[in-house]
Amino acid sequence: MPHAAWTELEAVARRDADARIHDQFAADPDRLSRMTVDAAGLHLDLSKQSWTRAGFDAALALARAADVEGRRAALFGGEAINFTEGRAVLHPALRAPVGADFHALGESVSAEVDAVRGQMRDYAHAVRSSIETGATGRPFKAVVHVGIGGSDLGPRLIWDALRPLDPAIDLRFVANIDPRDMAESLTGLDPETTLVIVVSKTFTTQETLANAEAAKAWLAAALPADGMDKHFIGVTAAPERAAAFGCGRTFAFRDWVGGRYSLWSAVSLSCVIGLGWDVFQGFFDGAADLDRHFLEAPLEANAPVLLALAQIWNVDGLHRPARTVAPYAHALRRLPAFLQQLEMESNGKRVRRDGSPVGRQTCPVVFGEPGTNGQHAFFQQIHQGPQVVPAEFVIVASTLERNGDGQTSESPLWANALAQGQALMQGKTEARAHAELIASGASEAEADRLAPHKTFPGNRPSTAILMERLTPRTLGALIALYEHKTFVEGVIWDINSFDQWGVELGKVLARAVLKDVAAGAPSPDLDPSTAALLTRLLA
Fold first, then answer.
1. 376 catalytic, yes or no?
2. Is 330 a catalytic residue?
3. pTM of this prediction?
4. Is-catalytic flag, 349?
5. How many CA atoms lie within 13 A of 157 on its CB side?
6. pLDDT tens column, 137-148
7. Cβ-contact 173, 145 below 8 angstroms
8. 124: which residues sit within 8 A by CB, 6+ positions away?
9. pLDDT tens-digit series, residues 491-535
10. Which is the catalytic residue, given 3, 376, 453, 515?
11. Distance of alpha carbon 325 from alpha carbon 341, whole angstroms
């Protein structure tokens, strides 16, 4: 562990904790150029972050002391960086150009990746062109994607971000075990023209299998038994289980693809069908562009590294336990939910790689809403609440085609994003609020009374991530940016970002509770509260 680098970062943070962000531009004339970076069609501006020049340098020194570059090489080299499960972590292999040469624990995997991509491309083309049909010979018009967690959030984000306004394929998603979710998704669909894609890495996930059984029953009630399996596709790392379940065809991915990183694999087959292969290839290409940037750019100009260091500075240097992400694009409305899983499941850890307690904070709480919706919800808190919550604005210059006069209708949208970042940094002093009230005609007494309520402390940090348009390529780059950011943070915190044991205990206990439900009464080993709640629900 780089103890000296951590000590220095924490010392600088204590010394500069009250430094005003706005003042740093004058104190450090190179601040803007040093804290902005362009990568794979994205422009990042971290100059409104809370660090001084000394803080920025201390954060970079910490990254070097933690050997980010060496761990990066281990990631791309296919070493077992998920050491608790003995697995490589090779999602970059899934979006690499055809003919790449990735290895997982020494085994060449790129030829297999290329083969599965070819199968996805060919099957999607067959469905979209009506070559592949259902049991009664009718073409597929709808796809129901059944999954949960990483088998759901990534594909949902892709579809929302890239779907045409009037899609040829009606793509719907089911994740929640609540029967209402499946009922809503199936309403209005014709079983004869509906394809169900069941996505589960192990094909043992309770929620996914329950929903898959419901979908299977819905299909079986309307279709002949001969050919029904054409309506049921499995995407899994356990193809034999999918076949036993009744899937007529399976698309495989390997155990070195973590769930929250699996959207680059056959997990997104439904999106390939809905969008077409050419769109998805652009998505791959953007991520591969960002991979190259992450591999080649020096740490001080490396977009994922700087984004990670800003978060570590806020979390561990300044003790800020939350961050909000506000995408100023309706098509990116699922981004905050996607990042909650990517970051909080990856880095919500309490022990280091050697099993000892981390001794400091790791991943903050991540939350958000699309702009400008969030401005009318939680932005009040981040502007005037006592806690400082760093903000991240993802801004798309053009979300629709330009108007005939050359002006974009989106300008009120991104103007609001710029104004929010400016307001968070600048704030408004009580003296200025008082003067504005007097200028508006308020009496001195009224101005004295109201001015504290209209004061904004300011000095609240934000990062801006800009792109000209939301295209398959820029979306791929954006997601890869956050993936590598999450990895860098895990390296510096010295944790395993690629296991998720925290989700297991609840699953085990849920199975035990279900046995009690079947028995009609709580078991003696249940705690009093859970037993009482179960009794009430059974009644």
1. yes
2. no
3. 0.96
4. no
5. 31
6. 999 999 999 999
7. yes
8. 269, 272, 273, 276, 277
9. 999 999 999 998 888 888 998 999 999 999 999 999 999 999 999
10. 376
11. 13
